[in-house]
From TrEMBL:
Record-linked Pfam families: Aldo_ket_red (PF00248)
Residues annotated as domain NADP-dependent oxidoreductase: 58-315
SUPFAM superfamilies registered for this protein in UniProt: NAD(P)-linked oxidoreductase
InterPro entries named in the record: AKR2_Oxidoreductase, NAD(P)_OxRdtase_dom_sf, NADP_OxRdtase_dom
Designated name of the protein: NADP-dependent oxidoreductase domain-containing protein
Length: 337
């Protein structure tokens, strides 16, 4: 097992949209179905088809990482359908050693959509459970799929309501897992109060006095900037900062001002959105949600672009921030497709 300590690559691949047939990214159906026009709806999103799509993007990341002199980094979750299985199979079938890759995953949600995209009105695709029993169950499931590769295990979407921030039994189980399998422990956050959850998480110590969480995975982008101060504080205290949904599930790509700025800079809106994230003072790593090799290659241009953005460029982008409550209300309305 390889422990990672402040060595996460700057760009990783999130499997939220590749490990299951449906997700809330805009225009997902157009991207997936366009290439498979000759297949039936069932065939386009079958397990075999989705694994094939995931393999293509993962192979693209391996090639990009080699070109950049970094390790490929895959971010999964128990609730991302078969993401852990897809990653584990890909790494084993391609004989990629644990020392040559970074793999992170999350526990706390269970996938319950049974490989369907459209569910009955109000039915969830995933169910949250941050209990000790669910952790002990899901860590074993994760070990079975990617145990030899796991570098970072994260609480999936920690909230005040779920009890994870005050459950000492879970805290000690997480600390024991860190020692047992030599992986780091993190948490992911969502909602308009991400900043408050991060601040509370920083206070949590294990019985031996060490800070429990080594990293935080947070939604931060041009439209949702509220967590910035909390992320900077976490960074200064030594936590790895991981940014998810850097393109706001595709919403940023439709922002006229972002398109205008990217045209002026001679780049694509997706690269600009991720470059904005990487240029932040809390020194984040960012996850791409690409579902095709072409998308990933376009996203990866953010690495160079982040170094070229001027303060004037950043100030314009800072000015596009939305009200956080409105941001999350709009996100909640996005349809699975």
């Amino acid at each position: 097992m390889v422990i990672i300590t402040n060595t996460l690559p700057r760009l990783g691949l999130g499997l939220a949209a590749l490990g299951r047939p449906g997700y809330i990214n805009l225009n997902r159906s157009d991207i997936f179905d366009g290439k498979d026009a000759n297949k039936s709806d069932t065939q386009r999103r079958s397990i075999d088809s989705m694994q094939e799509k995931a393999n293509e993007v993962m192979q693209s990341l391996v090639s990009l990482a080699k070109e950049n002199g970094t390790k490929p980094w895959f971010d999964c979750a128990r609730s991302y359908g078969l993401s852990e299985k897809f990653v584990g199979d890909f790494l084993k079938n391609n004989q990629i050693s644990a020392s040559d890759v970074v793999v992170s995953s999350k526990w706390g949600y269970s996938y319950v959509a049974d490989w369907n995209i459209e569910l009955e009105s109000g039915a969830p695709h995933e169910i949250k459970d941050h209990s000790i029993d669910n952790f002990l169950k899901q860590i074993e499931e994760t070990k079975e799929q990617i145990g030899d590769y796991l570098n970072l295990y994260q609480v999936h979407s920690a909230t005040f309501e779920s009890g994870i921030l005050t459950d000492i039994r879970v805290h000690e189980a997480l600390a024991s897992t860190r020692k047992e399998i030599s992986c780091q422990i993190g948490l992911s956050v969502s909602s308009p109060v991400q900043n408050k959850i991060i601040e509370e998480a920083l206070k949590i110590k294990t019985s031996d006095g060490e800070r429990l969480f080594d990293s935080v995975q947070c939604t931060y982008n041009i439209l949702e900037q509220r967590p910035a101060d909390a992320l900077l504080k976490a960074h200064k205290e030594g936590m790895d900062i991981i940014i998810k949904e850097g393109m706001a599930n595709g919403r940023i790509l439709k922002n006229e001002k972002v398109v205008e700025i990217s045209d002026r800079l001679g780049c694509t809106p997706d690269a600009l959105a991720l470059a904005f994230v990487l240029a932040q003072p809390f020194k984040p790593r960012v996850l791409s949600g690409a579902v095709t090799p072409e998308q990933l290659e376009s996203n990866a241009k953010c690495l160079k672009l982040a170094e070229e953005l001027t303060m004037d460029d950043l100030q314009i982008l800072y000015g596009l921030a939305m009200d956080s409550e409105q941001y999350w209300q709009d996100r909640a309305k996005l349809e699975w497709n």
